[in-house]
Specification:
Elements (H helix, E strand, L loop, with lengths): L17 E6 L2 E4 L15 E6 L6 E2 L2 H10 L9 E6 L2 E7 L4 H12 L14 E9 L7 E10 L6 E3 L1 E4 L8 H16 L7 E2 L5 H21 L31 E2 L1 H8 L3 H11 L2 E3 L11 H4 L8 E3 L1 H10 L39
Parallel strand pairs: 1-3, 9-11
Antiparallel strand pairs: 1-2, 3-4, 5-6, 6-7, 7-8, 8-10, 12-14, 13-14
Helix pairs in contact: 4-6, 4-8, 5-6
């Protein structure tokens, strides 16, 4: 399954077999066709009713209403909770153990995915549900989206398919799911290199992942030596008020390679290159004339083993202009069970006085 971007479409496909879907009490249009059984869903189906807890579907509103009163998942999602922070939780379920649920979820997701998806051969996948629980109503929850992952990926993919359901998009939830996928894969990996999403990416998927990679690398480069003085842990990077009498600091710099950054962030070299080009804050530390190769990173002027000059001041400018929060939206302390940190207190606090905002 190729990842899809959590950003909404504006022009639904004309060959949809379902025009609208009712998820719980929400009505919204579909984008693409899904392979629902033709004896139940056909090209004349205008409205499909889908249970917001188990994704069981029906064209009969009365059957749908009756099911929602009896759904076995109306009080808790299936699987095991692996993450919980700020009202958002992630639940891991095995496609082999919850086969019908995974099939129904995949059929529903295909209504909003342009790429080929797995519907019935779900046993080789793990599914991670993004759930929101209102603290004022803890017995009521909402599934906002999900990502799937192959149990064994020969291509080192850490994510197969990702979708935030249309009513819940534009809330930075896609980044939360991507972050969880990288965290879990990094803890599973022994090499430090945890791969990336399954390729090829859609145009919108590439855009979403590029932004995610840029922020991931920006956080690493800004925080590896400490936190900027003006950075707020829970907010965006604010603009700095410069003092006209402040002495000019000596610019410092640090040399590193694309490979170094990839190993530090668990990202593939090609993804690091994509992000660095977007950040516009690095330049080769060697002369401009280089031996040309067929390697994509070399063509971009960023060889995997070639030293780079990283200008932290430009990364700060990028972070400010894009209103990037320096604190990762995924918190280590939010992970539960086998992924729970051994000792969350081991995370060191960064002294804001130790950071030089200049080139680094």
């Amino acid at each position: 399954m190729a990842p899809s971007d959590p950003v909404s479409r504006t022009e639904p496909s004309t060959d949809r077999n379902v025009k609208h879907v009712v998820l719980g009490d929400l009505l919204f249009p579909t984008w693409y066709q899904s392979i629902y059984p033709e004896d139940l869903v056909n090209k004349d189906t205008d409205r499909l009713y889908v249970c917001r807890w188990c994704f069981r579907y029906s064209c009969d509103v009365h059957a749908y209403a009756q099911h929602t009163q009896l759904c076995q998942h109306r009080t808790t999602p299936p699987g095991t909770k692996v993450y919980d922070h700020g009202g958002y939780s992630v639940w891991e379920l095995d496609g082999e153990c919850h086969k019908l649920y995974a099939q129904n979820l995949s059929l529903f997701a295909k209504l909003f995915l342009d790429h080929k998806s797995v519907f019935f051969d779900v046993v080789s996948f793990l599914y991670y549900l993004l759930v929101f629980t209102d603290p004022n109503d803890p017995e009521n929850y909402y599934v906002l989206g999900f990502f799937s992952k192959e149990k064994l990926s020969w291509d080192a993919n850490n994510l197969a398919c990702i979708l935030v359901f249309p009513p819940y998009q534009h809330k930075q939830l896609g980044k939360l799911l991507m972050g969880v996928s990288y965290k879990i894969s990094s803890w599973e990996s022994d090499s430090g290199l945890i791969g990336g999403p399954e390729r090829p990416l859609s145009e919108m998927g590439h855009r979403s992942y590029t932004r995610f990679w840029q922020e991931r690398i920006a956080r690493y480069l800004l925080l590896q030596t400490g936190k900027p003085k003006e950075a707020e842990a829970s907010g965006s990077v604010p603009l700095k008020q410069k003092s006209p009498k402040a002495p000019k600091r000596k610019h410092t710099h640090e040399l590193m390679t694309v490979q170094d950054i990839g190993l530090a962030t668990g990202m593939l070299t090609e993804d690091v290159v994509t992000a660095l080009q977007g950040l516009g804050a690095v330049e080769p530390a060697t002369p401009a004339k280089k031996r040309r190769t067929k390697d994509s990173s070399a063509e971009a002027g960023l060889g995997a083993d070639e030293p780079l000059l990283v200008r932290k001041s430009k990364i700060l400018e990028w972070a400010k202009s894009h209103h990037m929060a320096l604190q990762d939206p995924v918190r280590d302390e939010g992970f539960l069970g086998k992924w729970a940190p051994v000792d969350s207190t081991e995370e060191s606090e960064v002294d804001s006085d130790d950071v030089d905002e200049d080139d680094g």
